Amino acid sequence: MTNQIEILVTKAMGYLEATEGFVQEQAPLVVQEVIIFGRWEHSIQLVLASMMLVIGVILIIRKAKDCFMAEPTRHDLAMLAYVAVALMGVATLNLKTTIQVWVAPRLYIIDYLKDLMA
User: Fold this and answer.
1) What integer pLDDT is reported at residue 40 of this predicted model?
2) pTM above threshold 0.70
3) Averaged pLDDT score across all residues of the chain
4) Measured between alpha carbons, how far is 22 from 19 in angstroms, rounded to an integer?
5) What is the SS3 assignment for 118?
6) How many other C-beta atoms lie within 10 A of the C-beta of residue 43?
Protein backbone atom coordinates (compact mmCIF):
# COMPACT_ATOMS: atom_id res chain seq x y z
CA MET A 1 0.00 0.00 0.00
CA THR A 2 2.79 2.43 0.92
CA ASN A 3 4.58 1.59 -2.33
CA GLN A 4 1.45 2.47 -4.37
CA ILE A 5 1.09 5.78 -2.53
CA GLU A 6 4.73 6.64 -3.24
CA ILE A 7 4.23 5.84 -6.92
CA LEU A 8 1.10 8.00 -7.07
CA VAL A 9 2.83 10.87 -5.29
CA THR A 10 5.81 10.59 -7.65
CA LYS A 11 3.51 10.66 -10.68
CA ALA A 12 1.58 13.64 -9.28
CA MET A 13 4.81 15.55 -8.66
CA GLY A 14 5.90 14.79 -12.23
CA TYR A 15 2.62 16.16 -13.59
CA LEU A 16 2.93 19.28 -11.43
CA GLU A 17 6.49 19.91 -12.60
CA ALA A 18 5.45 19.40 -16.22
CA THR A 19 2.50 21.78 -15.96
CA GLU A 20 4.42 24.46 -14.07
CA GLY A 21 6.25 25.55 -17.22
CA PHE A 22 3.04 25.50 -19.21
CA VAL A 23 1.25 27.68 -16.66
CA GLN A 24 4.15 30.14 -16.57
CA GLU A 25 4.12 30.39 -20.36
CA GLN A 26 0.34 30.70 -20.70
CA ALA A 27 -0.49 32.96 -17.74
CA PRO A 28 0.31 36.27 -19.51
CA LEU A 29 -1.75 35.23 -22.53
CA VAL A 30 -4.69 34.21 -20.36
CA VAL A 31 -4.57 37.54 -18.52
CA GLN A 32 -4.53 39.42 -21.83
CA GLU A 33 -7.48 37.40 -23.13
CA VAL A 34 -9.47 37.97 -19.93
CA ILE A 35 -8.87 41.73 -20.20
CA ILE A 36 -9.78 41.87 -23.90
CA PHE A 37 -12.89 39.77 -23.34
CA GLY A 38 -13.84 41.91 -20.33
CA ARG A 39 -13.46 45.09 -22.36
CA TRP A 40 -15.75 43.82 -25.09
CA GLU A 41 -18.25 42.23 -22.72
CA HIS A 42 -18.65 45.22 -20.44
CA SER A 43 -18.59 47.77 -23.24
CA ILE A 44 -21.42 45.94 -25.02
CA GLN A 45 -23.33 45.64 -21.74
CA LEU A 46 -22.89 49.37 -21.14
CA VAL A 47 -24.18 50.20 -24.61
CA LEU A 48 -27.20 47.92 -24.15
CA ALA A 49 -27.89 49.31 -20.67
CA SER A 50 -27.64 52.86 -22.02
CA MET A 51 -30.05 52.00 -24.82
CA MET A 52 -32.44 50.50 -22.26
CA LEU A 53 -32.11 53.65 -20.17
CA VAL A 54 -32.92 55.90 -23.14
CA ILE A 55 -35.87 53.73 -24.16
CA GLY A 56 -37.04 53.61 -20.55
CA VAL A 57 -36.84 57.39 -20.21
CA ILE A 58 -38.82 57.84 -23.43
CA LEU A 59 -41.48 55.41 -22.20
CA ILE A 60 -41.55 57.11 -18.79
CA ILE A 61 -42.03 60.52 -20.40
CA ARG A 62 -44.86 59.18 -22.56
CA LYS A 63 -46.48 57.44 -19.59
CA ALA A 64 -46.05 60.55 -17.45
CA LYS A 65 -47.85 62.62 -20.10
CA ASP A 66 -50.69 60.09 -20.07
CA CYS A 67 -50.76 60.07 -16.26
CA PHE A 68 -50.86 63.81 -15.93
CA MET A 69 -53.45 64.25 -18.66
CA ALA A 70 -55.70 61.99 -16.62
CA GLU A 71 -55.67 61.55 -12.87
CA PRO A 72 -52.33 59.93 -11.90
CA THR A 73 -52.51 57.15 -9.36
CA ARG A 74 -49.87 56.36 -6.75
CA HIS A 75 -49.22 53.09 -8.54
CA ASP A 76 -48.43 54.88 -11.81
CA LEU A 77 -46.04 57.30 -10.15
CA ALA A 78 -44.35 54.53 -8.13
CA MET A 79 -43.89 52.42 -11.25
CA LEU A 80 -42.36 55.35 -13.14
CA ALA A 81 -39.92 56.04 -10.31
CA TYR A 82 -39.04 52.35 -9.95
CA VAL A 83 -38.29 51.89 -13.65
CA ALA A 84 -36.16 55.04 -13.76
CA VAL A 85 -34.11 54.08 -10.71
CA ALA A 86 -33.66 50.48 -11.87
CA LEU A 87 -32.44 51.49 -15.32
CA MET A 88 -30.05 54.07 -13.88
CA GLY A 89 -28.73 51.45 -11.44
CA VAL A 90 -28.01 48.95 -14.22
CA ALA A 91 -26.25 51.58 -16.31
CA THR A 92 -24.19 52.77 -13.33
CA LEU A 93 -23.01 49.26 -12.41
CA ASN A 94 -21.96 48.56 -15.98
CA LEU A 95 -20.23 51.92 -16.21
CA LYS A 96 -18.06 51.17 -13.16
CA THR A 97 -16.91 47.82 -14.51
CA THR A 98 -16.35 49.18 -18.01
CA ILE A 99 -14.21 52.03 -16.71
CA GLN A 100 -12.29 49.60 -14.49
CA VAL A 101 -11.48 47.19 -17.31
CA TRP A 102 -10.29 50.02 -19.58
CA VAL A 103 -8.46 52.20 -17.03
CA ALA A 104 -7.33 49.75 -14.33
CA PRO A 105 -7.02 46.28 -15.88
CA ARG A 106 -5.02 44.91 -12.93
CA LEU A 107 -7.84 45.78 -10.56
CA TYR A 108 -10.26 44.16 -12.99
CA ILE A 109 -8.15 40.96 -12.94
CA ILE A 110 -8.12 41.00 -9.13
CA ASP A 111 -11.92 41.38 -9.04
CA TYR A 112 -12.24 38.68 -11.70
CA LEU A 113 -10.14 36.25 -9.66
CA LYS A 114 -12.04 37.18 -6.51
CA ASP A 115 -15.32 36.34 -8.27
CA LEU A 116 -13.88 33.01 -9.43
CA MET A 117 -12.96 32.12 -5.86
CA ALA A 118 -16.40 33.04 -4.48
Assistant:
1) 92
2) no
3) 79
4) 5
5) coil
6) 15
